[in-house]
Every structure is written in structure tokens, then in C-alpha cells.
Design goal:
It is built from 17 helices and eight strands. With 385 residues, the chain is α/β, with parallel strands linked by helices. It folds into three domains: 189 residues, Nucleotidyltransferase, domain 5; 98 residues, DNA polymerase, domain 1, CATH 1.10.150.80; 78 residues, DNA polymerase, domain 1. Strand 2 and strand 3 form a beta hairpin. Helix 8 runs antiparallel to helix 12, helix 14 crosses helix 16 and helix 14 crosses helix 17. It is flat. The N and C termini lie far apart (59 Å).
Amino acid sequence: MKKELTVITKTSDLDDLISRFSDSEFVAVDTEFIRETTYYPKLCLVQLSNGTEACCIDPLASDIDLSSLFALMENENICKVFHAGKQDMEIFVYLTGKVPSPVYDTQIAAMVCGLGEQVGYDRLVSHFCNINLDKSSRFTNWAERPLSDRQISYAVDDVIYLADIYPQLRQKLATGGRDKWVEAEMRSFADLSGYITDPDTAWKRLKPKSKKADFLTRLKYLAAWRETEAKKRNMPRGRILRDDTLMDLAGSNPKNDNQLNKIRGFPKNQNNPFRSDIISVLGKAATDDSMMEVTASVRKDIKPPAATVELLRVLLKHVAEQQDVASRLIASAQQLDDLATGNHLDHPCLSGWRHDIFGKQAMQLIDGKLALSLSGNEIRLTETG
């Protein structure tokens, strides 16, 4: 494929490109963006390739309308291929309110193929294309214009090789009978709810250690307030208040300015516009009568049996090695804890392909119907009932 270093800056040229791509089976997609000083990402560049043509699109150009690009993202006849594409998808959700569809993520596919945990793009290119990429432009300022040829070359490489890798991955998965596994993962990857943060559930991402109802209620109110302010002001959450400061506020429950000043990390500036807001938010939390409901929404504070968890970890490692699948994709540490404590409601390991290769044996192990033993350096599984 010829590498084109020109960048599309006009609507007519973009429309022509999308028209040429309209009969493609798939389009490899990547974006460059910045969000260090904002809540929402600022889209700076879009790269596309259909396997025969690759180019960059400048969304910051003054004479460009991205409507045809957004239509391509919604075209159900063309698969949009990303690598570790959650943030790229988030950008399109922010700009259009919709998730691109259908989609395929090569990082997830690579994990199913046993190529490791969270496989990087450069490693994937090396594995399938035997090429070592120059990643020196990764952290350049993508909002600055003009873009250099080196920046453009780096950016377009991210879709040129992605378009080469996608058919190889599909073939590898189909040969191993695992293409349906990836299809199942893509349904979750394309779920709109995964890209929109509800202020009322923002507290959950903080992973609080305390399960006390009053603390969790205050944290819920504070996190919802911060999320709303961050969106309204288009500022990073941490610039409103850091996570640890939010936790301290929920734990200390200050009632006035003097008590606020004692909170570690809280801005001491008396003109801080958030002071009165925080006191008000904490006051509202104190009148909330759903504290028990909030507590019930947290995983029950039951310490999982250590021995059971360790056995599940051994089983998981064994299954991952036998199946040549990244263990992290099969089950997380939290999911193993949930299995060990009997928290099985809607557990991902108890349905689909995860159940077939791991969940069924995990439940047998927990129920005493499966034994683990060593034979030399090999783990042996024996059904006992």
C-alpha cells in the first residue's frame, strides 16, 4: 500500500474518500486526541484505511464537515476495526451520541489468540508483519498545526498495519474455532452504556474500601457533584477535586469553612467557588434516607476464603495456559473473589465461552467435585463426584 502523507482538510475531499470506502468490507480506524486539560477529548486527527488506501483527516481544519465520516461509523455494512479502541470509540460517542457499529478490536482478539495481556499495537505489528514501528511521535502535540511529515507518517502507520493484521487475526481465530468468542466480546465493547458516565454511579470507579452506609452516601453525592461540574466546565475530574480529597471529604464530613481547611489536599483559597457547593452537597447527603440501599449496592463485605481464591487462581492459570488465552480476559481478581464468596448473580464466568473453558470447572472446584494435583510439573484435574 502506498503511504500517502497528505491530510484531508476539505469536506469535498473527505466525502470523496468516504465514497471510495463505501464498498469496503472493513475500515481500520485510529484517532489522535488530547484531553490533559479537558473532561471531553479534543479530536485532533482521524486515520482510516480499507487495506488498499490509507489517509489522515484533520477535524480541526476550518473548511471541513465530518458528517460523512460519522455516517461511515454508523454504516452497518462496514466493520470498523480498532486496536485498544475504547478511547477512540468514546470520542465518536461524544461527537455523535452513537457507538460506531459494527466494530472489532484487535487487542481483544489478540488476547483470545493467546498473544498476551493487553497486547500493544507495536507488538502486534511485529508479530504479524515482522516490522518494528517508530513510536517516537506518540506524545507529540496533535493539536498544533502544521503537522510534520513525521507525525503524519506515524499516524497513518497505525491504520496501514492494522488493516493488514485484521484479516490475519480473523483467519487465526476462525481456524481455532474462536471467532464466536470475539463476537461475544464485541457486543460488550459496543454497548453505549460503557462510554457514558452516569453521575449517580461515578462513586463506584473510586473503589472505596469502607462499606459504611453514611460514608458511601456522602461519597456518592460528592462524586456525582464532581462529575457534573467536570462535564459542565469541561475540566478533568482531578482539577475539580482529586480522588483522595474526595475520599477525605466523605470520611470527615466537614460542616463549615474551618473544617474544610483541615482536609488534606483541599484548596485553601477562600475564593474557591466549590466551598459552598461541597457543604451543600454534604448537607443533602445527610438527609438521604437510602443509605441502606447504597450499602446494599456494594459487594457484600465478606472476605473471600483465601484458600478457595488461591485454588481458583491456580485453576485459572492452568486453563489460560491450556487454552492459550490471556487469563485477564477470562476472569479478573475481583471476579475470582466473587466466585469464592458465592456472589454468582450475572457472573461473566458462568455463561458463554468463559463458562465452557473455566466457569464450569471453577464451580466444580468450589463444590468439591474437582481436585487439583501435581504430576511432575503439570497440574492435573480430577473429577471427584
